[in-house]
Amino acid sequence: MMVLEGRGLPMKFGVLEGPGSPGCQVSDYCFTLSEAKEAVEWADVVTFEFEHVDDGVLQEAQQLSKLTPNLKAILPKRDRREERKLLSSLGLPVPRWYPAEDGREALRLLKDQFNNVGVVKSAKGGYDGKGQYFVRGDPSTAPIRESKEPFVVEDLVDFDYEASVVAVRGKDGEFRTYQPSFNVNKAGILIYSFGPTGDEAMTSYARRLAEALDYVGTMAVEFFVKESSVIVNEYAPRVHNTGHHTLDAARTSQFENHLRAIAGLPLGETQVHSAYGTVNILGLSDVPKEVLRYGRLHWYGKMEARKRRKMGHVNVLGEDIREVREKIDRVLSLLYPNGLDL
Ligand SMILES: Nc1ncnc2c1ncn2[C@@H]1O[C@H](COP(=O)(O)OP(=O)(O)O)[C@@H](O)[C@H]1O
Ligand SMILES: [Mg+2]
């Protein structure tokens, strides 16, 4: 999507992804993973849509001063313990949490500190809910006891809703945000989001984080909201699923703004021109054409559909949030007539 959104800008795109992949279908050059070194040499700027990539490529790009955003923004995302420490050190409110060296310690902390009601998350490599265990009572069946991997153990937050803010920061430090969205996740994965909503705390937290990381590009911060108190869940050092509505609802999309930022160009306007929603297409290899009555389809062209895999999304627009939510419900019932299999 980033390449498609960059077509109006004076740049060429090389993508490091397997042949036939969504990025390679639309880019000027396609590099295989074994050509990573050549790809980094070829580019003036190296960026990413997914941060769980080989560190070697990132280090190489950083050494040549091409990696944007830089490693400082990515490294805390390699380990949830580091991310939480960073957020706390900046004075951002996070759920009560403890680090655990392995599964046994995680279960002990869960019992001693959380009375066996909490969330145990793999410290490393998790996204879209991977490596997370929600415990409400006896955790003896949780498959983490024998794990030698580190974990974060935290409060199971009884939030009223989840929200996120997508922000962009330019090379000159200019900072802009899209208005926050409401997000609905199930089994750790985003099903749909809608907005706009407004919250000073969210945008100021995002700014504090972006400035502390010397961040350049688009980023997102996810929140839990309970009785108007805002808790930071995590951040994402990249374009974000909850910013996909900007393709249709904003003057400049999060993708174009990311490209503008990393290329040192002026940022584009971030206002939305209507209420909006995004419905994720999860695990489907095809879409009922009727969804086009309600919104705009963005199909990623991934080679194979798998359970929970994000295959595309539908953006809907409306006069107000009520209209948007009606359209979201219609799209959901067309996509998942028998409910969502997660
Ligand atoms: N501590 C928590 N309390 C309640 N729900 C949580 C908690 N942590 C995660 N979740 C739920 O799981 C989703 C995914 O977790 P998150 O920490 O954002 O990891 P990921 O990196 O997989 O997105 C969240 O958006 C939320 O719905
Ligand atoms: Mg998340």
Any descriptors?
single chain; 342 residues; alpha+beta; Dna Ligase, domain 1; D-amino Acid Aminotransferase, Chain A, domain 1; 3 domains; nine-stranded antiparallel β-sheet; four-stranded antiparallel β-sheet; 11 helices; 15 strands; 27% helix; 26% strand; globular; binds adenosine-5'-diphosphate; binds magnesium ion; nucleotide-binding; ATP-binding; ATP binding; phosphoribosylaminoimidazole carboxylase activity; purine biosynthesis
What does this structure look like?
This protein is α+β, with helices and mostly antiparallel strands. It has 3 domains: 2-67, no CATH class; 96-155, Dna Ligase, domain 1 (2-Layer Sandwich), CATH 3.30.1490; 161-335, 2-Layer Sandwich (D-amino Acid Aminotransferase, Chain A, domain 1). 27% of the residues lie in helices and 26% in strands. The chain is built from 11 helices and 15 strands. It has helices spanning 2-5, 22-26, 36-42, 55-63, 71-74, 80-89, 103-114, 200-212, 246-249, 254-262, 321-335, and strands at 14-16, 29-31, 97-100, 117-122, 132-136, 151-155, 161-169, 175-177, 181-186, 189-195, 217-226, 229-236, 275-282, 296-299, 310-318. Strands 7, 8, 9, 10, 11, 12, 13, 14 and 15 form a 9-stranded antiparallel sheet that branches. A 4-stranded antiparallel sheet has the order 3-6-4-5, sandwiched between helices. β1, α2 and β2 (29-31) form a beta-alpha-beta unit. The structure holds adenosine-5'-diphosphate (ADP) and magnesium ion. Residues 95, 119, 126-129, 154-157, 162, 185, 188, 222, 233-234 line the site of adenosine-5'-diphosphate. Magnesium ion is lined by residues 222, 234. It is an enzyme of class 4 (lyase). Residues 84-263 form the ATP-grasp domain. It comes from Sulfodiicoccus acidiphilus.
